[in-house]
Amino acid sequence: MDQRLEGMMDCIKKAFLEGSARGLEFRKMRHGIIVEMIRLGLTKEEIKEQLLEWNKRCERVLGPSEQRTQLGNYVEWVFKRIKEPRIGCRAMCDYCLGTENCEFFKKKYVLNRKVTEPSAFYWSEITKFLDERYAGHPGLILKLILAVLRDYQQEKGTGEVIFISFRKICQILADKHSYHPSPMELSRKMAILVEEGIIEIAIHGKSGTFKQLANGYRFLPWSWPQGANSPTTTHINPFV
């Protein structure tokens, strides 16, 4: 395969290498393949040649006449109509391989891949606050969830944005802390951490999923809320 094509979106590259079923999938992937090849610098003729090879791997090989109308002519149409060759993950969501596994998604949306560690002072202040605001069991669970995010960030080297699903958080809580929350309970606890300004959902996964795609979470600079018994009101950067 042309080395330039290594940079294609994972879902489109998979379809290009393995072929597509006829119908909607074929039409959508045809468009995606062309747009991605334009983005990666292939010429019009190079794209037509690549599509002919892709056609051989598809469910039903198009004949010469169909190749001209459905492939060659469509390339010409895209070159005339598409001023900026770009296709997003949302457009290809029906064929997503999962954000946790998609290298294109990580490279595009997670720019900082270095390992980061929130400071000890940050964790100390967050712990004090949660113990005060959510005394007893609720505070303990909130701290466990934050510990899961921190440990996962370190173990996977995620960088600033931590891609992790509700299912994975539940699994880690059960395996490491013997706590078995329901997805709904976990959702409520995560919402508290967001409302308190401790974390944010930097990148949303596919809507309505507790068990499919992962959200991208980020620790936020944080300060004690007004009215809480705080030793300081200074904003605390988690990574300083």
What does this structure look like?
With 240 residues, the chain is mainly alpha-helical. Helix content is 51%, strand content 5%. It has nine helices and three strands, in the order αααααααβααββ. It has helices spanning 10-18, 24-39, 44-57, 64-81, 103-109, 120-133, 137-156, 166-177, 183-195; strands at 162-164, 199-203, 215-219. A three-stranded antiparallel beta sheet has the order 1-3-2. The protein is elongated, with a radius of gyration of 23 Å.
User: Which fold name corresponds to the CATH topology of the largest domain?
Assistant: Arc Repressor Mutant, subunit A
Q: In CATH's first tier, which class of the largest domain applies? A: Mainly Alpha
Strand content: 5-15%
| Uncertain residue segments | 206-212
Taking Cα atoms only, what radius of gyration do you get, to the nearest Å? Answer: 23 Å
